[in-house]
Amino acid sequence: MRRTFKNLLFVALGEFLGQLLGFFILAYLARTLGVANFGMINFAQALFSYGLLLNYLGLPTLGTREVARCQPWNGQRRTGSIVSSILSLRLFLSLLGFILISIISLTIPKSYETKTLVILYGFSLFTTGLFLDWFYQGMERMEYLTISRIINYSAYFLFVVIMIHRPNDFYFVPIGFFLGNFFVVLFQLLVYQSTYGKLRFVFNWPSGKELLKMALPLGIVSILIQFGQYFTPSLLGFIKGNAAVGYFSAAAKLVTMITIIDRVFTIVALPMITRYYAGNNPMLLQLLLSHLQKLLIALVLPIIVGSVILAQDIVTLIYGENYLPASSVFRILIFFFGITIFTSLYGVSLIAGQKEKRYAQAIGLGTLTNVILNPALVILFGPIGSAITVVGSEAVTLIIAHHYYQKFINSIGLTKGRGFQSGYALKPLFATCLMALFPLLFPNINIWLKIFGCIILYFGILILIKGITKSDLRLGTTTGK
């Protein structure tokens, strides 16, 4: 339990600091570059992401699993071989990805500046291909992940602040992004060489094909999620232009910052649910899942309602008056957070029960919904249509994942509390309604006072009416050793 708790703290700290620095970078770029250039940067990042899909292909997930199977560190030769093989293969895939996005950038009907930005971002494929995050995750050395994240964002932030002062300085953004990644690679390779031995790069195509065959199923879910995430701004940019991408991306990045809660939850929930499932005790698993649902409902409701009410204040505070249209997009996109965190709960439950193919099917159908609906809604409503599509497609994923989740828990003997329990929402909903009165009754007070007032009021009421109990918070720590 001590190591699990320590790793959780490191992961949460890394996510928080990374998002905080990312927030400052985001706000600075949005204000300095202007809406059109900020949208152009996000469009280039979206195309760059397709190269990342080829770079990834499930190999980091496979590497984490295989390294973890070698624990404790008594399989150094085998693990070293895994690291060398995966890094060599990812470098080869990075080269293919760079060629791919370079060809795309030269053929798309976009400005010279946009094409140049895409190619500049493409060089970062070679640094991401050398990342060893997956190795340190498999070794359960999460402190190295946290340090890497701090190095990455700190270097990027300093470069941006020093080099970017005018709207036309946008070329420095992908250069700063590359340098942040480069310093991470340097740190991770130095730690590896000093702690685990010399690293060799050996590319063998037959071995690489076998690795790809093993890794591909593990990467399907991540690839579909990333495709759905970047497809929207890419399509929006093609149809409506850079300004529309700027408004959508401004709102989407706010939601991304909030979904740090989902990422930390997933890291905690997957091993916990797996442990209960492997223990062959359906009643304890049922109790765990029920408590997790209750906690998530209590967390999600106030965030969604508060974000809807304070959307204009939040967007204006971070981006300035020029981005005010993004507040309407943010009001819709915040529902994505509420949906995706429950998708994660059902998804990690399926993965823990070795039903990851079912989860991949749910993600795939959600992505297909996105691809089908997006063009029409973007043409009709612009960035608002993009937001509606993102939320709607995630809702489709949730419904299908929940269906497979119900079938899974029925198969292991759970008969009560098997799905979403609406009764868990009554007390949090009551506390949320009272919380919502505060910013509505005092609209002219400072935004920070509104936020902190809502937090104190909500949790004060929730504790008073016993919407969350000690047993809800204690579960998962009493059995974790």
From TrEMBL:
The keyword Lipid metabolism appears for this protein: no
Key words, A-Z: Cell membrane, Membrane, Transmembrane, Transmembrane helix
Subcellular location: Cell membrane
Main location group: membrane
Gene Ontology cellular component annotations, sorted alphabetically: plasma membrane
Entry membrane topology: Multi-pass membrane protein
Protein name: Flippase
Lineage of source species: Bacteria, Bacteria division WOR-3
